[in-house]
Amino acid sequence: MTDVLTPERARADGSPRPGARRRASATRLLWVVVAVALLAAAVVASIALGARVIAPADVLEELRGVLGGTEGGIEQAAVEKRVPRTLLAMVVGAALGVSGAVMQGVTRNPLADPWILGVTPGASLAVVSGIAFFGLASPASYLWVAIAGAGLAAVFVYSVGSLGRGGATPLKLALAGAASSAAFTSLISAILLPRIDVMNQFRFWQIGGVGGASYAKIVQVLPFLVVGFLVCLACARGMNSMALGDDVAAGLGERVAVTRAVAGLGAVVLCGAATAIAGPIAFVGLVVPHLCRLVYGLDHRWLLPMSMVVGAALLTTADVVGRIVARPAEVDVGIITAFIGAPVFIWIVRRTKVRAL
Question: Which spans are transmembrane here (predicted)?
Fold first, then answer.
């Protein structure tokens, strides 16, 4: 049964009527408010919950004590420790969410995300190589190395996926990324096995987590994340054109190769910086863009900012869950996101069959 456009729903030329546009905008703004509220709730829960529970009503008072520099008790000390952890979870989740959305947009591959395309394993391989062979020992030194490794991995995967007839199809990119991820992971194991000292330093970072957060780490990574966010947001309109196909986008005046390269660079910077500061965290970049696309539509001018908000909320919530499921011990956030992301990944594969967006 075909859908009939009535005067109430559309104009004669097929474009939506002003009333329909207003209702769609109002619905979208409502979901924006919902996403921001969920992020705010996740932030409060992150500060309040842990080995020691702080009543939500007391969180603001304890925060005032921390900001004012006054002496406090155990609860204020807990808040002082949890605030940088919460901030780090937010910025890392936002970075991974936007990075995944951009990678799905520039490749038109619904299965694309930093882990599946081999970008996160490439950054991890670069970091472990730096630890083992060059004596890297601090997150600040990891940053440039991780970004370089992520960039080289992205170029390698795209080059392999472009071989043969048809160029870089979604299926070939997914296969090239999966094979590259397996190869990078094997190389990491080969480097670590004979080096017990490096393994001890690397194993906690490899799981992925935000437990060792500090204001110094956040300040170190923030400039890279800001640059990555701005580059990706600047390419939003171009990615909207590319969603129509490269030929159509070129016909509309879009420089497809330039837009794809610049947007990909922004995604690589975000992924590399997030991996350097928090370790390799999987599935956030896959799950978040799909959730946002269902709610906010395909327009990247909305999709990217909302992927930032939802990614921050998701990773913050996952960190809270990891703190309370095994209290007083903790489960690293990388394990929680894997539990969340694996079923969603299976659902996406069954639903999309690796077709283009």
Answer: 29-55, 86-103, 115-136, 142-161, 173-193, 213-236, 257-282, 302-321, 333-350
